[in-house]
Amino acid sequence: MIKPDRTIDSRDIEAIKKLKDLGVKFVLATGRGYNTVQGTLKELDLFDEANQYVISYNGGAITENKDNRLLHFEGISFEKAEELYKRGLKYDVVIHVYTRDAVYAYNLTEDEKRYVQNRQEMIEVFDQNLDFLKGQEIVKVLYTNTDFEYLQSIDRDLKDITYDMDVSYSSNRYIEFNHKAGMGAGRYVSNGEVSKDRVVRTINGDNISYVVPQYIRKDNVEKSVELSFRVRRPTQQVNIVVKDGDTVIAKFKKEHVIPSEMEKVSIPKILLEKADKELVVSIEEDA
Known about the structure:
With 287 residues, the chain is of the alpha+beta class. The protein has helices spanning 10-21, 38-43, 78-88, 110-116, 148-157, 159-162, 182-191, 269-272; strands spanning 28-29, 53-56, 61-64, 69-73, 94-99, 103-106, 123-125, 138-144, 166-170, 174-178, 199-204, 208-212, 215-217, 224-231, 235-244, 247-257, 263-268, 278-285. The chain is globular.
């Protein structure tokens, strides 16, 4: 719809306005943030309109245009973003980190500055880690390079950490790493907001550095959910224990665990339904 010069054809504008008058909802969808499409909404006479919506961040967020009210959000964990950021430091790429309210760019080139001008405001950073974003909601991470084959090689190289993510290419210059947000967004559109009682949070227990996903929507799980995590220290003859409070939901024996290897366990939906609001993953030495 948006032409290369960033304008919209007058015929499209007129058609969309006629659809609105007929009661048809026209929902903008973008990989960028909802804050970046306000000018487009004004052109289409949809700005600050109640019961009109924007899907942004590749399906990671749904907002009502009235006051940009956030209805649905699914980002990536800080730990996942941090790992992608640190891995990106060794590649010849610009790294973008999207939060709900801002975009941060590392190794920002003149070519990238020209490309994003009038498209997206960015904050240039020089940090070797993402500590400055701890506690913030992170939407996605992008790498920039205009060599498509090079981006494909990066994709192959990162399979050990992106196996549970949506990885896509855009604008002949980006590889994007997103939460698998399509299913959650689709179900939101169909069924409305997910009850907080149906969301389970994962917690790092003893000898666990991080667990992904951080949140599990029970209604999004069909047969089972896979938990991926890393341990803090090597340990022999262990039990991987998943608890809800004092109740053991699942237990898995393992001969050894080490920090350099990603561990995975699968929790069947029937067991997940027993959890209330938290799942604590811990490593216990086998007695």
